[in-house]
Amino acid sequence: MSSNFILIFIIISCLLLSSTPSIAYPVKINVLNNATDPAGRRRFDKELGKEYTVKILTEEIIPFIWKTFNQPTDASRKYVPNVGFIVKTLTDGAMAEIGEDNIYYNDIAIRDLPAGQEQAKFFFKSVVYHEATHIYQFNGKGTAPGGLTEGIADYVMVKSKVYNPEGYTKPGEGSKWDEGYGVTTRFLEYCDSLKPGFTPTLNNKMKDVFKEDYFQELIGKPLAQLWREYKAKYRKIILDGSFWEWLVRQEQNEGEREGEGEKPVSPIGFQRVIPVSEKLFRVPIPVGVEVQSDEPISNVKA
Ligand SMILES: [Zn+2]
Hints:
Blueprint: H1 3-19, E1 28-33, H2 38-68, E2 82-88, E3 96-99, E4 102-106, H3 107-111, H4 117-136, H5 146-160, H6 181-194, H7 198-205, H8 213-219, H9 223-239, H10 242-258, H11 267-273, H12 278-282
Parallel strand pairs: 1-2, 2-4
Antiparallel strand pairs: 3-4
Zinc ion binds next to helix 4 and helix 5.
């Protein structure tokens, strides 16, 4: 073989490699409708179905999880080639959960999906994004805090944009970094803003073990300090007023929906007019965090 031929062969191979999307190992999804609730059983078959479930998992959700985790090769991915998807009654009241390599979806939750096929599919897919992430995420062989794995499962769902941002946790909420779900997701997004790609890197480092030191290693600051600074950043936004504008807007929208018609104009007025829900109240007054604003904390306290 001439050296020219070898060179051309190498160039063509490189071109092929760069233009072909990386091939992942095949995943087989086994869907069972074992619903005991007749309405849930019917609704799954009629509005969602086995074919749809397999399609979204293999064509959208699992590839998206690998992409979000920056796992371009099979060697970098968790190897789960068979996933069970079972619709059944969950006696613990969960909407959906996982066990081994199975996703269990409560038939009662299927029955109670939002009305309309498109709405039902959207909500269903959002939950499947979260549950499927549990199957393919690393958890440090069980050493990662449960709240962190819940936060990463939500993180992928939020990145997919298949979720309802209205009513979802806002940045700055929560009282501890591993509270789970939206609180942890928003904190991870903050960590991403300090170190691009932080969350996928953290996930990939947890193949064998979780260590709090990973935060220091990747961002250069200890975890406790990061959480403090995260909370302080959003409290500052709250104290200088922009967050209140956001809150007031939220409440106005809700008021209009409920036909209350109240139009609070200031944080103080806002608190007088509409009772502040526990959730909203939790946002502006974090406890035990250093204050970065000159304004007294009592300004935002009822
Ligand atoms: Zn979960």
